[in-house]
């Protein structure tokens, strides 16, 4: 049976049909008020002012207003794009929460599912039970399937979700608002947002506000940095997102989307966020939006925990070889390699066969792909100082202390998350300076 409460006709089509049926003389009457229409883009208002000031045909101005209104409403459509691979049971469990969140949003929302070649009848299930949901059948290219599908969608904003994600009913608007807000003078435009994320139990913290640190010559993004308990209550910046993020669709495509260098997966979001930062954009953490994650179900089922960790290690090396150019960062990485190989040798007699020589094997696998780094979407090069600033801005100390102190904290969040203990505050005081 179709999911209740969702029309079959997509929102952009309904808007176009409704506006097309409105007589032109109605828009003619609205032309003098065009400067006060809050949802009309500034460029559209300027075009209308130019037409009226030059005393051109009022009917032409009415036609322009009609086109601008139609384009504005279509562009304000928010696409919820779910990536699926053999997740029919997960879709049955999670899609109803996404549909409820779409109904509660004040924006036009369209739910889309990308199926990466599932063999568990996921597509047939969607067509029977959720016929209003558009399905894009793609070859299995992991997160890179988003690149092709987002190029076909008309809306300005897309929320990218794994198939094991649920959303709280009031999550879409706070997640989308920073992407649609006009940029303040001197501020960086927002290109990506990430919500507060918990596991399905509703209690266990999974983060999505990520800090970046160095560990034995490797870059690591983590949501469990000292002071995360308190920082997770307030809006701030994030170095990555993970299983759910909202993106400005045009900027996502301009930056090259997710890089196939990392296939079959791991660290694509960190690489994408780094490119956005180097292009001068901001990735924001929005705890007023809440998501729930089951936790790497499809990935662990395909590769196992050991295989997943091996891919993360290989892709960490590729991330650094592709993106880092500052001499001190390169030296820090190269200087730690002998210690990494020596540790592999010392651990070999004591570790199971599946994890033996983990770093050496990851290094060999990364070396085999190193030539592809030159063909990958590379970050815009502002300066080496911008690369240094990246590690400063996303250090654990900076995120813990510089979460926006005057930003409102949701009462729901305050009730559901425990207050930070005295030990957490003492630990914050001992955090060192930024790693760079």
Q: How does this structure look, described?
A:
With 436 residues, the chain is an alpha/beta fold. It has 18 helices and 12 strands. It has helices spanning 11-20, 24-30, 42-53, 58-75, 88-104, 122-129, 145-150, 172-180, 228-231, 249-254, 268-278, 297-323, 327-347, 358-369, 384-393, 396-401, 411-416, 422-429; strands at 78-84, 109-115, 134-137, 157-162, 165-167, 190-199, 205-207, 211-215, 218-222, 236-237, 244-248, 282-293. The strands form 2 sheets. Strands 1, 2, 3, 4, 5, 6, 7, 10, 11 and 12 form a 10-stranded mixed β-sheet that branches. A two-stranded antiparallel sheet has the order 8-9. α2 packs across α4 and α12 packs across α14. The protein starts with 10 loop residues before the first helix and ends in a 7-residue tail after the last helix.
Give the SSE layout.
Layout: H1 11-20, H2 24-30, H3 42-53, H4 58-75, E1 78-84, H5 88-104, E2 109-115, H6 122-129, E3 134-137, H7 145-150, E4 157-162, E5 165-167, H8 172-180, E6 190-199, E7 205-207, E8 211-215, E9 218-222, H9 228-231, E10 236-237, E11 244-248, H10 249-254, H11 268-278, E12 282-293, H12 297-323, H13 327-347, H14 358-369, H15 384-393, H16 396-401, H17 411-416, H18 422-429
Parallel strand pairs: 1-2, 1-4, 2-3, 6-12
Antiparallel strand pairs: 4-11, 5-12, 6-7, 6-11, 8-9, 10-12
């Amino acid at each position: 049976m179709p999911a209740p409460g969702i029309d079959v006709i997509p929102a952009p089509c309904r808007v176009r049909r409704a506006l097309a049926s409105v007589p032109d003389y109605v828009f003619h009457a609205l032309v003098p008020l065009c400067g006060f229409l809050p949802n009309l883009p500034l460029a559209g208002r300027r075009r209308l002012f130019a037409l009226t000031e030059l005393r051109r045909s009022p009917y032409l101005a009415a036609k322009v207003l009609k086109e601008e209104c139609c384009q504005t409403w279509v562009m304000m459509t928010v696409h919820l794009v779910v990536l699926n691979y053999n997740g029919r049971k997960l879709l049955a469990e999670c899609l109803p929460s996404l549909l409820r969140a779409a109904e509660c949003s004040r924006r036009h929302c369209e739910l889309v599912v990308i199926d990466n070649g599932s063999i568990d009848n996921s597509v047939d299930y969607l067509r029977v039970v959720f016929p209003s949901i558009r399905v894009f059948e793609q070859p299995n290219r992991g997160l890179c399937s988003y690149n092709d599908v987002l190029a076909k969608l008309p809306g300005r904003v897309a929320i990218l979700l794994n198939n094991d994600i649920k959303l709280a009913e009031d999550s879409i608007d706070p997640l989308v608002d920073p992407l649609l807000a006009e940029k303040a003078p001197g501020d960086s435009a927002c290109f990506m947002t990430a919500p507060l994320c918990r596991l399905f139990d509703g209690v266990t913290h999974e983060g999505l506000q990520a800090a970046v640190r160095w560990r034995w010559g490797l870059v690591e993004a983590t949501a469990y940095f000292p002071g995360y308990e308190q920082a997770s209550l307030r809006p701030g910046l994030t170095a990555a997102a993970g299983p759910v993020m909202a993106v400005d669709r045009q900027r996502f495509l301009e930056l090259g989307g997710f890089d196939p260098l990392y296939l079959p997966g791991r660290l694509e979001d960190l690489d994408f966020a780094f490119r956005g930062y180097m292009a001068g954009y901001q990735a924001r953490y929005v705890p007023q939006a809440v998501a729930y994650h089951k936790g790497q179900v499809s990935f662990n089922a395909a590769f196992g925990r050991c295989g997943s960790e091996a891919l993360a290690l290989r892709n960490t090396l590729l991330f650094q070889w592709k993106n880092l150019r500052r001499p001190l960062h390169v030296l820090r990485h190269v200087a730690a390699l002998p210690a990494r190989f020596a540790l592999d040798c010392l651990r070999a007699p004591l570790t199971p066969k599946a994890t033996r020589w983990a770093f050496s094997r990851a290094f060999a696998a990364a070396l085999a792909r190193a030539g592809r780094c030159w063909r990958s979407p590379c970050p815009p090069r502002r300066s080496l100082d911008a690369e240094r600033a990246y590690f400063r801005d996303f250090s654990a100390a900076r995120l813990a202390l510089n979460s926006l102190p005057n930003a409102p904290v949701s009462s729901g969040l305050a009730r559901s998350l425990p207050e930070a203990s005295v030990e957490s505050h003492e630990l914050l005081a001992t955090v060192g300076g930024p790693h760079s």
